[in-house]
Amino acid sequence: MRTHLDGAIRIGIIGSGRIAERFISEAQQVQGIEVVGVYNPRFPAAREFADRHHLEIAAESEEMLYKGVDAVYIASPHETHFYYIMNALVKGKHVWCEKPMVLDKQEAEKAFACAKHQGLVLMEAIKTAYCPGFLKVLEVLDSGRIGLIRDVEGTFTKLSPPGEHWRELSPSPWAGSFTELGSYPLMAVLSILGDQYESLRFEHIPGQHGLDLYTKAYFRYTDSLATVKVGLGVKSEGTLVVSGSKGYLKVVAPWWKTDAFSLYYEDATSRDDFEEEFAGEGLRYGLSWFAAAIQGSQEAVRLLPSKVSIGIAAIMAAFLKERNGGRRGVGRTNG
To answer: Cell inner membrane: present as a keyword of the record (predicted)?
Structure first.
């Protein structure tokens, strides 16, 4: 692995949308990195973004960006991620890619294999996976305090501000609630129960253009179950609940910004509470670990193992195949 860069790690952004804006402010909170440039296929957008954030590089081409950076943060549309990941890795750049990293299992496997071959870091930017609160959740679950884990339920839903158009529901084979929000609860399920589920099925309510407004994924493992629930334009309580043989763990809404959770037992008077910091938008935690991985930390890579990102990509692919299969009404797939 190429490690121990002299001075600050120079990062370039691919994409200049909403998440790229948040990335700039979060990166300013992380020591050892410097955001120096941006690339957008629409050069005027890159130029405006670079001017506004005082970046030294407004790249007219990918090649121009790669020449001036050590690593890239990919914040482009979902369907372009694999293309940019592979280009960056081939050019010798570490990659921090926005979720969902890719939408196909084989692409995920190929990307991680390329990173390993090149001696580079490739990590998926699911911010929850790296924040202190969620890491504490995993620690408490591993301790056995709620016994054998029998069920995981994760929910992430959003309502748009009045009059705002959902970019995520624009006509596209890759848009919809599941691709936009599903990475968070899928990460939780796979991190807690693993990727060896016995069956998986989906149900969704379609909206305009056939895109899913509200989606549920149901997992069956040998000795446990899991449910993922996501929605755009539908609102539910955004909690993460893990049920065990001795009690249950509940992360308060919004659980993906994990800053507080509690353990509950049969005795209603008994409860254990936990609080952890969740600063800003939370991107700073993952970005700190990304920088640590570039400098050689193996612990950083283990926080969100490649098998979890590959597992998420496989599930996304299965859902898109079912949803885009041409059927109307509530979709269902058994697998």
So the answer is: no
